[in-house]
Specification:
Helix content: over 70%
Distance between the termini: 22 Å
Radius of gyration: 29 Å
Number of helices: 12
Order of helices and strands: HHHHHHHHHHHH
Structural class: mainly alpha
Number of strands: 0
Oligomer: single chain
Strand content: under 5%
């Protein structure tokens, strides 16, 4: 779910209100102590959730990065570059490997002890519950004295659509694309790993062909001759090890960020919201224009039902205070 700036939801509401007349009755509802207190509570919970998410990713990425760094350093010893690594460089590599191991171990212990994933999900669950409370207070807010009830209903619907439904619909679509790109098997980091595997395979194949004495056409023979290196097996092993470390890093990071799951979940939620809007919004507008308050309440309940399905993973982690 959304982890944007602390004041983002308030700004979205203010933007939606900016198109309404200064004396629009819905402004009084938004300015009421009930709605403002809920907005403040949501902002505090959203800020905590963002801090917990940052801590989870910080230590998770430190652990993954240190592991990959150690693997790549170890692979240097496998490569036939012994003359470059004699003396001080070899000692430095050993020290850096030990440091990488210590960082990995420390990050693992902290993640186990601090449980940042649980804390993040728990805080996000509370924030999303409070976000719903903000709009529930607006939708069910009482009309100010002398306000046109029908006009107020229309303003509530417009505010709900602009500051919540359309806003979150855009968020789901954008984040689905971003997570799908990050989960792609053709991300830059993965492509580097694939390239190293191809290089290792070509070196190994060239060495094998040369050793077996296979006769090749002129162009292929020249290519094989260029690829036949001294200690080809060590080049192949070292490059393959580095590639494995890089691909493991990319996989671990996308699993930590849950890119594939989020891409699918956001896409499904966006489609459900779009279907609800296309199916019901026109009828809801007609009913609201006639002063049918229940139509707005049902539509809001349907919207929240879809959004709560999207972040059910959060709300199941931390039950609401109403339960």
């Amino acid at each position: 779910m959304s982890t944007q700036s602390q004041k983002y939801q308030r700004e979205a509401i203010d933007k939606a209100l900016s198109g309404l007349p200064p004396n629009a009755p819905v402004r009084a509802i938004v300015a009421s102590k009930d709605v403002q207190d809920k907005l403040t509570a949501f902002e505090a919970a959203d800020s905590r959730a963002k801090a917990e998410q940052d801590r989870y990713k910080l230590w998770g990425r430190r652990g993954i990065g240190a592991t990959t760094f150690g693997v790549v350093l170890g692979a240097l010893v496998l490569l036939p570059v012994d003359t470059w690594l004699e003396g001080a460089p070899k000692v430095v590599i050993g020290a850096l490997q030990t440091l990488a191991l210590a960082v990995t171990f420390g990050a693992t212990l902290l993640i186990t002890w601090l449980r940042p994933l649980h804390e993040w999900m728990s805080s996000r669950a509370e924030a999303e519950r409070l976000r719903g409370k903000v709009f529930d207070a607006i939708v069910n807010g009482k009309a100010p004295p002398g306000a046109d009830a029908r006009a107020l209903l229309g303003q509530k619907l417009d505010l709900l659509m602009a500051a919540h439904v359309d806003d979150q619909l855009g968020y789901f679509k954008r984040r689905s694309r971003e997570h799908r790109k990050l989960a792609s098997k053709f991300s830059p980091l993965r492509l580097l790993g694939y390239l190293l595997i191809v290089c290792a395979t070509l070196l190994g194949a060239a060495a094998l062909v040369s050793e077996l004495g296979v006769r090749l056409p002129g162009v292929l023979k020249d290519l094989v001759d260029h690829l036949v290196l001294r200690d080809a097996n060590r080049w192949q092993l070292g490059l393959a090890t580095i590639a494995s470390g890089i691909l493991a890093h990319a996989t671990a990071q996308t699993l930590m960020d849950q890119d594939e799951r989020k891409a699918m979940l956001y896409d499904i939620t966006a489609k459900k919201l779009r279907k609800l809007i296309d199916r019901d919004l026109a009828d809801v507008r007609d009913a609201v224009a006639k002063g049918e308050e229940s139509a707005l309440e049902r539509f809001f309940a349907d919207v929240r039902s879809i959004m709560e399905q999207e972040h059910a993973v959060w709300s199941f982690v931390r039950p609401s205070d109403d339960e």
